[in-house]
Amino acid sequence: MLDFLLTTDAIMALLTLTFLEIILGIDNIVFISIAANKLQENQRNKATNIGLILAMLQRIILLFFVSFLVGLSKPFFTIKLSWINAEISWQALILFVGGLFLIYKSTTEIREKVEDPNYDEDNAKSKVIKSLSNAIVQIVIIDFIFSIDSILTAVGMTNGLHNNHNYTLVLMIIAVMISIAIMIGFANPIRKFIDAHPSIQILGLAFLILIGFMLITEAAHLSHTKLFNQTVGAIPKGYLYFAIAFSLFVEFLNFKTVKKNLKK
């Protein structure tokens, strides 16, 4: 186990996944902050911390469930047509549907954030919260919705890293725990940074489109799909790491350029 966690692939996956989990958790932090601010001042920190801890537990439970489904690699249905051949398993089906969901969710989120940046915040402010328990229930419900793309991203980043699904499951759990711990300790600074640099969140959502496409190709590869007698191959995760690192480097240069121009 330790040997796997110290490999280059595992470390890169952990760092990338932790970053994406934090970016994906920004909307969650916004909602939790709004929900907590409707309570009395002495209950706000408690609601925030409890909400984030329950979010972590909920995501870990979902990781176990999704990882179990992804582990079902035995084909249960075969497609044989003149232009396509495929052996469908639950593993391939979950990855394919998950990839489509990530692409849909990401494009929808990007459109909403470009056209109406305050959509999520206005929606959260419209909800009535009367007590601490009421706030926690609403936080858990909304986190379940937010955590779906987070879980699918974790599966996409770690699938195929090791033959033992338990090893990759541990890696996903570690990433979720680190990201939640960072959000508990630095929720407000992270939110302020994202508010000041909204392009970071758009960039994170764009990464999800890449991951969604990778999940679809991975599903096709695992189901031995042939399109017009051409076998679909898996996309090496190193390409994804390079794309994310390069994009972040360009964004960093953009920050420095804007900051320099402001000083002038």
UniProtKB/TrEMBL annotation:
Topology in membrane: Multi-pass membrane protein
Entry keyword annotation includes Nucleotide-binding: no
Subcellular location, principal: membrane
Database matches in InterPro entries: Integral_membrane_TerC
rRNA processing found in the keyword field: no
Matching Pfam families: TerC (PF03741)
Gene Ontology CC annotations of this record: membrane
Highest taxon above the source species: Bacteria
Keywords per UniProt: Membrane, Transmembrane, Transmembrane helix
Protein location: Membrane
Chain segments annotated as transmembrane: 12-35, 47-68, 88-104, 135-155, 167-187, 199-219, 239-255
UniProt record similarity statement: Belongs to the TerC family.
Name used for this protein in its record: TerC family protein
